[in-house]
Amino acid sequence: MTVLEPSRDQTIENAIVKKVLMRLIPFLAILYLFNLMDRGNVSIAALTMQKDLHFNDEVYGLGAGIFFIGYFLLEVPSNLIMQRVGARRWIARIMLTWGAISTSMMFVHTPMSFYSLRFMLGLAEAGFYPGILLYLTYWVPGRARARVLGSFLALNGILSLLGTPLGALLLKMNGIGGLAGWQWLFLVEGVPSVLLAFVVLKILPDRPTDVGWLSPEEKVWITESLIEEERTGQQVKHLSFRVALMEPRILHLCLIFILTATAGNAVGFFGPALLKFRSGGLWSDPVVVLMTGIPGLVGAIAMVFAAAHSDRTGARRYHVMFGYIVAGFGFLACVFAPTAGLTVVALSLNVLGERSAAGSYWALTTNLMGARAAAGGIAFINSVGNLGGFLGPFLMGKLKTWSHGDFKPGLYTAAGLFFAAAFAAYLLRRDPPINPSPEERFVEETAAASQPEPHIP
């Protein structure tokens, strides 16, 4: 049996991916860890903050979700600015402002101050996650992105396990220095983002040409690969607002994202409260917070294997579809879980499915965009999809109030949204072969060359 030697291109690609995974991904994952902590720690703070400030579920749900309205408004402009001024300076700016506002959450005392600061936090954070996605497209070609994006999100999932015991510890500081535990939570978790902004400004490279750890051959190869990908791919090469609203593939991906974001955030922001309720008060707040980290660990492990399989097979669409089916069954299992422990198992099943789909979803999304459309396109999809971050908590708060505190209507709704997203993923155009034959490549390139660019001034 003859063992085929890897091609020169494959060898160079593997070397670049390995270096990106070692040099960039750990640092970016740390930044994203604080991003998620500062936007989501309100769900931990709510265990005591709601009672201290007399906020009902509707007030909390609206305040948790209004973050995403601010996020939506500045998402696309933020990414376009980053493409112009460079990732290093713009990501540093984002982190500085969001850290300052997140720290200021310790001063919340009325519903209006809660709404205002959460809205401002969304404005400040806008563009960070799609900016990271855009940034990674500068370093690896489309066929390797699920692996890189999956590794980034998986490492972040593992690092996020550090955030749950920290949140539990900070809640126990209640009364120290005259501050409530939830105030310590916002203070201690917001300050590092401010400090990391200066680290980003110092060490983050803007492009492959700026680093010494890629060889000259590797720098030339990645530049030429991205140019060739732009030339031959059937991508959205220009993007105006009108094009975004008229391009079916972009709208289709937006629909999938908004369905899953609504479902995930509906349960996610109420997750600690759900576990405390199911425990019948037997789990203390620190225990509840620690247990919320288990689904994240399961999802991180699942993402590593799912992303590698997605890159190997090229079956992005099926990974997205089956991942969201599993996620939907996870929320259905939550409905019938009789104890807090089994609820954690059900939530873990949900996160396993959702994280298995995430790397392939973003690989599909970034591969759709040409280089000139990527900055606005990724941000457009992320911003529209993240409106689900507003709808989800608001919907769960309404359903809980309507059902007199019952979580089941919200869980049924969230499960249904994941199943709808899976069906929408099934309707996506079939995935191209991961390693097309010369004949298939000729047919694709001929078809692409015959199509006018979808540019609308």
Distance between the termini: 56 Å
Q: Specify the overall morphology.
A: globular
What ranges have pLDDT less than 50 throughout 5 or more consecutive residues?
A: 1-5, 234-241, 431-457
Overall residue-averaged pLDDT value: 82
Total E-strand runs: 0
What is the percent of helical residues?
over 70%
Pattern of helices and strands: HHHHHHHHHHHHHHHHHHHHH
The value of Rg in angstroms is 22 Å
* Strand proportion: under 5%
Structural class: mainly alpha
Tell me about the biggest sheet? none
Count of helices?
21
Description:
The chain is mainly α and 457 residues long. The protein has 21 helices and no strands. The longest helix is centred in the first third of the chain and has 29 residues, at 57-85. The chain is globular and about 60 Å long.
Question: Strands, helices and their partners?
Answer:
Layout: H1 8-23, H2 25-40, H3 42-53, H4 57-85, H5 87-104, H6 111-125, H7 128-137, H8 145-171, H9 181-203, H10 216-232, H11 241-246, H12 248-268, H13 271-278, H14 285-291, H15 293-313, H16 316-336, H17 340-368, H18 371-385, H19 387-402, H20 408-426, H21 438-450
